[in-house]
């Protein structure tokens, strides 16, 4: 039976409250960040932080709206209660960034004693707290701060007349501190405020706001000896750059503008444009015209926009370039460039004009939050490389990404260190990587053209040099010969001409032998490397195929086990021998299927396939195609294969098999893609024919076609690590992203081409026209 | 006896599973859901066969056009209380579409006890217990819903159903399929809105017909 009802309120130990605050603002940089942010949120136009070395005291003042007594009581003094939770747009239209009501603990992080003066349009209040009162075993409600009505002004409160740094004090007096605002005097500081601390904080403040905000909000930060120029914080900015990439994500669209500023053709523009093959539009881009691109969210591989609108600007900024590359790629002179990433940071994130730490913070683990370095390690190709993708380094990419409090799925992490991990943050990273990949593609497009042009020039230059050397030797020999003839005439001698009268040259036979030997040695080395490379490609293909059929292989393995177990149980429990025999027969049938898989996987690396020789394609592929036919038939796919009988190709057997295996693996993945309806038919057609002196492969399937990400630009699938088998929005990625890259590499080794343009026109199905030609046929 | 529905586009192991279950638990009977073209066909079959719990193969795109996880999503839209488990030949971690919780995914290998290996036997028995418990829960929930159904039926009979019409129809569909309530005449199941719409359409047709004769 219940008696005597009482209500008992919850309370919290004061020390615990202080610990919570410290957990949230653990670093000095974080504390300063919170204080400046509070000033910004109060619509201040100036925020001043002065460390007085002589007094070991900090003065902070801003000219914001100040706090009324009611706000002081209900928000400032109530932990966890922020006035910015519900209404977050200030009178002047700024979007406030804090909302957790723990920013005031920043003061506790900095010092033990705090004396605050806050002036609002209702009057002035002085608030004094000693954070040490929170120690011991008091409850939070027992800790008191003193509040006084007062009539002093902000500059009076901080005692500006006695500041030792008179020069900066004079500048501060000129600022608008006569009205509302808030000022703090902090004593018993927790940190040693030496030069190192000041420099670290200055660098931090320089990166706190994006450059365009400092006109509306300026920060002064100084100690007793700081000059006026150094005291006024200017936002770190990128003045020189090689590439600038602006982007905006608006609803379902991603717009990108790329500006090239990296190349200087040193007066050879016309020659380079013509010889390297830049068309008129490309020429305009090279002269500074913005290259504008637009994609839908689906086209970049996303299901929908989970986060809303945002934008940013990124800069590519080389720190060094060797002389050879500078000439080869016509780079502008970058002598004396400093590592801007140290000062500016990497790719920084701003929420409503305020920095979201620690992304892009130099020296922090999250400096490379987009994992650009790991990406570059996976694809280390040089800029001019014909195959492979050039990837930007993490210290070469700078910039700012602007998000807002109004974006969804991008909430601050509870400890104020970054954004909460989740679908929104993952999507933000993926979109940024897409934008960066667009820039990389553009730069490599230019780089490849310039590299080809340089190679062409190099070969010509070498030939010219050789001819010039021979011409000079010949000239010298002719002069000697003519002198000798003169002398012989006068001597009237009947001696046989000496050996030295022959034109200067080495023994041609020796030279030819030497060159032949060298060439042979080089060719052998190259051949060895090529073989090794091919072996790796084949092993990769084997892996891809095995991965592709993992489900079927596992099903077969499981089924053998299940049938045998069922046979065992039928005899053991039911004495049903007839049923057990049926089980065993089914297990044997399943076992037979394995032979087909091995035909495609293990057989592909057989030694005799690794020798290059002249093959008749039809007979070479007969066994291989029969095996595929068997496998495809079992998976319900109709395989229609035709091959001309008279194609002879000088090739490695596994090269051609690799191309076909990878194409088929992709088709099967497409057939198994879950859509809103059932696929009408599963069919693959491959027609291999002779095209003049070349080999032509027409490949098509009846699958769902390329996913939207590749539909507009099918050639992207030829790049490494591009995988269409993933489900957007989730992290699953069951494709390796290597298959079509291997196909492309192999084609390029056979001086061939691959045409995917039919995919642009067709609604469904996949189409590829491959031609293998040149010296190998 | 509880009925365990089994959905697989290639049910080669159905008979083995059925025997395996029966040997270990007399209360469970494995029932094959077959001859279906669409998700709705499957749902209808589940009602028809009065299934208490479901085992669904994961990879079914080839023959159905959708995977097991998508199907579960569809079934649970209509039958919130029925427990569905995914059975797969691949690693359960590879199913990451987020449509089914990890605890509801099992390897098809669970039925392979490798000749009465004690560890495997224990795993299979634990799985069977889960199936049995899920089936029982579904039955209890159906019983509980009877009370609510009767309350709504009473309102319906007095013409006071209003916004609860949809809930009533849903309960009727499940409970009548499982034989827990008597079938109602078809005209009782038409909502008032539909009745009115039907009347307006008839009126419209009559006007058109009249105009034509003029």
List the helices and strands and how they pair.
The complex is a heterodimer of chains A (777) and B (214).
Chain A (H helix, E strand, L loop, with lengths): L13 H11 L3 H14 L4 E7 L4 E6 L6 H8 L28 H6 E10 L2 E8 L15 E5 L3 H4 L8 H9 L6 E9 L5 H12 L11 E5 L5 H4 L11 E8 L2 E8 L8 H8 L3 H7 L4 E6 L13 E7 L6 H6 L11 H5 L2 E5 L2 E3 L15 H7 L18 E7 L19 H69 L16 H41 L1 H25 L2 H24 L11 E5 H18 L3 E6 L4 E5 H19 L11 E9 L2 E8 L6 H4 L27 H11 L3 E3 L2 H4 L4 E7 L5
Parallel strand pairs in A: 1-7, 12-14, 16-18
Antiparallel strand pairs in A: 1-2, 2-6, 3-4, 3-6, 4-5, 8-9, 8-11, 9-10, 11-14, 12-13, 15-17, 18-19, 19-21, 20-21
Helix pairs in contact in A: 2-7, 15-19, 16-17, 17-18, 19-21
Chain B lengths: L1 E6 L6 H11 L3 E5 L6 H10 L4 E5 L3 H4 L3 H11 L4 E6 L16 E3 L10 H40 L7 H13 L8 H4 L2 H22 L1
Parallel strand pairs in B: 1-2, 1-3, 3-4, 4-5
Written overview of the protein:
The complex is a heterodimer of chains A (777) and B (214). Chain A has 777 residues and is of the alpha+beta class. Chain A has 3 domains: 14-231, Histidine kinase-like ATPase, C-terminal domain (Heat Shock Protein 90, 2-Layer Sandwich), CATH 3.30.565; 243-459, no CATH class; 611-776, Heat Shock Protein 90 (2-Layer Sandwich), CATH 3.30.565.10. In chain A, the strands form 4 sheets. In chain A, strands 5-4-3-6-2-1-7 form a 7-stranded mixed β-sheet. Chain B has 214 residues and is α/β, with parallel strands linked by helices. Chain B folds into 2 domains: 2-140, Rossmann fold, CATH 3.40.50; 146-213, no CATH class. Chain B contains 8 helices and 5 strands; from the N terminus they run E-H-E-H-E-H-H-E-E-H-H-H-H. Chain B has helices spanning 14-24, 39-48, 61-64, 68-78, 118-157, 165-177, 186-189, 192-213; strands at residues 2-7, 28-32, 53-57, 83-88, 105-107. Chain B has a 5-stranded parallel β-sheet. Chain B is elongated. Chain B starts with a strand and ends with a helix. The model of chain B has no long low-confidence stretch (mean pLDDT 87). The interface between A and B is medium-sized, with 35 and 30 residues.
């Amino acid at each position: 039976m219940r008696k005597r009802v009482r209500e008992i309120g919850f309370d919290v130990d004061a020390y615990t409250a202080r610990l919570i605050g410290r957990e949230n603002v653990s670093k000095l940089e974080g504390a300063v960040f919170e204080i400046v942010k509070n000033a910004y949120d109060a619509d201040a136009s100036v925020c001043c932080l002065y460390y007085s070395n002589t007094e070991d005291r900090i003065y902070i003042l801003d000219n914001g709206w100040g706090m009324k007594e009611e706000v002081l009581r209900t928000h400032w003094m109530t932990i966890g209660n922020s006035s910015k939770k519900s209404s977050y747009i200030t009178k002047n239209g700024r979007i406030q960034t804090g909302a957790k009501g723990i920013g005031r603990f920043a003061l506790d992080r900095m010092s033990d004693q705090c004396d605050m003066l806050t002036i609002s349009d209702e009057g002035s209040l002085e608030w004094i707290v000693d954070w040490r009162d929170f120690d011991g075993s008091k409850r939070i409600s027992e800790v008191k701060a003193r509040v006084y009505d007062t009539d002093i002004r902000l500059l009076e409160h901080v005692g500006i007349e006695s500041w030792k740094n008179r020069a900066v004090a004079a500048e501060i007096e000129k600022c608008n501190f006569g009205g509302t605002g808030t000022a703090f005097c902090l004593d018993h500081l927790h940190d040693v405020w030496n030069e190192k601390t000041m420099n670290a904080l200055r660098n931090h403040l320089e990166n706190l706001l994006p450059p365009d905000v400092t006109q509306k909000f300026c920060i002064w930060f100084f100690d007793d000896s700081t000059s006026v120029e150094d005291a006024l914080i200017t936002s770190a900015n990128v003045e020189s750059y090689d590439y600038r990439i602006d982007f905006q994500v608006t609803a379902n669209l991603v717009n990108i503008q790329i500006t090239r500023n990296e190349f200087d053709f040193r007066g050879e523009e016309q020659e380079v444009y013509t010889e390297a093959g830049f068309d008129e539009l490309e020429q305009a881009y090279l002269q500074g015209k913005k290259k504008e691109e637009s994609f839908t969210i689906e086209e970049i591989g996303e299901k929908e926009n989970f986060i809303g609108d945002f934008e940013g600007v990124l800069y590519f900024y080389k720190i060094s370039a060797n002389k050879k590359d500078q000439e080869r790629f016509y780079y502008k002179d970058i002598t004396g460039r400093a590592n801007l990433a140290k000062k500016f940071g990497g790719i920084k994130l701003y929420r409503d004009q305020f920095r979201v730490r620690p992304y892009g913070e130099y020296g922090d683990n999250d400096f490379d939050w987009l994992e650009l370095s790991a990406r570059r390690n996976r694809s280390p190709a040089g800029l001019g490389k014909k195959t492979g993708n050039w990837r930007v380094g993490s210290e070469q990419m700078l910039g700012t990404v602007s998000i807002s409090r109004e974006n969804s799925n991008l909430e601050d992490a509870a400890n104020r260190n970054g954004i909460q991990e989740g679908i929104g943050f993952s999507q933000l990273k993926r979109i940024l990587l897409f934008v960066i990949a667009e820039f990389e593609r553009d730069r490599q497009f230019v780089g490849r053209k310039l590299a080809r042009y340089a190679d062409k020039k190099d070969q010509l230059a070498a030939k010219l040099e050789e001819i010039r050397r021979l011409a000079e030797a010949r000239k010298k020999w002719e002069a000697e010969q003519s002198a000798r003839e003169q002398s012989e005439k006068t001597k009237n001698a009947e001696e046989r001409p000496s050996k030295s009268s022959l034109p200067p040259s080495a023994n041609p036979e020796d030279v030819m032998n030497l060159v032949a030997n060298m060439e042979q040695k080089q060719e052998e080395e190259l051949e060895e490397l090529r073989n090794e490379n091919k072996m790796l490609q084949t092993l990769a293909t084997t892996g891809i195929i095995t991965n592709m059929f993992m489900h079927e292989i596992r099903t077969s393995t499981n089924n053998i086990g299940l049938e045998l177990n069922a046979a065992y149980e039928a005899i053991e429990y039911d004495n049903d021998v007839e049923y057990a025999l049926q089980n065993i027969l089914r297990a044997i049938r399943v076992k037979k299927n394995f032979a087909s898989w091995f035909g495609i996987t293990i057989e592909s690396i057989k030694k005799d396939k690794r020798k290059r020789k002249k093959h008749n394609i039809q007979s070479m592929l007969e066994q291989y195609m029969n095996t595929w036919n068997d496998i495809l038939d079992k998976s319900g796919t109709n395989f229609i294969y035709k091959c001309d009988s008279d194609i002879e190709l000088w090739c490695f057997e596994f090269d051609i098999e690799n191309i076909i295996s990878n194409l088929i693996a992709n088709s099967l993945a497409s057939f198994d893609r879950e859509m809103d309806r059932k696929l009408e038919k599963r069919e693959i057609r491959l027609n291999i024919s002779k095209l003049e002196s070349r080999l032509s492969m027409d490949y098509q399937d009846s699958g769902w076609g390329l996913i939207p990400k590749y539909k507009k630009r099918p050639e992207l699938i030829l790049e490494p690590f591009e995988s269409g088998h993933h489900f957007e929005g989730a992290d699953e990625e069951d494709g390796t992203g290597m298959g079509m890259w291997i196909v492309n590499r192999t084609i390029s080794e056979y001086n061939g081409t691959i045409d995917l343009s039919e995919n642009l026109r067709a609604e469904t199905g996949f189409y590829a026209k491959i031609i293998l030609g040149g010296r190998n046929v | 006896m509880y009925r365990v529905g089994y959905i697989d586009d290639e049910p080669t192991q159905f008979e083995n599973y059925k025997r395996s279950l029966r040997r270990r638990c007399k209360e469970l009977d494995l029932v094959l859901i077959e001859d279906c073209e669409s998700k709705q066909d499957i749902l209808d079959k589940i009602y028809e066969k009065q299934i208490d719990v479901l085992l669904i193969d994961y990879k079914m795109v080839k023959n159905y056009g959708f995977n097991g996880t998508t199907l579960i999503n569809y079934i649970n839209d209509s039958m919130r209380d029925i427990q569905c488990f995914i059975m797969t030949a691949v690693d359960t971690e590879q199913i990451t579409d987020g449509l089914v919780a990890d605890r509801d995914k099992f390897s098809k290998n669970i039925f392979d006890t490798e000749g009465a290996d004690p560890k495997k036997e224990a795993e299979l028995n634990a799985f069977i217990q889960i199936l049995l418990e899920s089936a029982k829960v579904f039955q209890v929930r159906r019983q509980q819903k009877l009370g609510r159904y009767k309350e709504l039926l009473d309102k319906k009979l007095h013409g006071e159903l209003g916004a609860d019409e949809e809930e009533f129809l849903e309960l009727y569909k499940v409970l009548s399929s499982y034989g827990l309530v008597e079938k109602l005449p078809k005209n009782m199941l038409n909502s008032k809105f539909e009745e009115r719409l039907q009347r307006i359409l008839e009126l419209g047709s009559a006007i058109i017909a009249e105009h034509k004769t003029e």
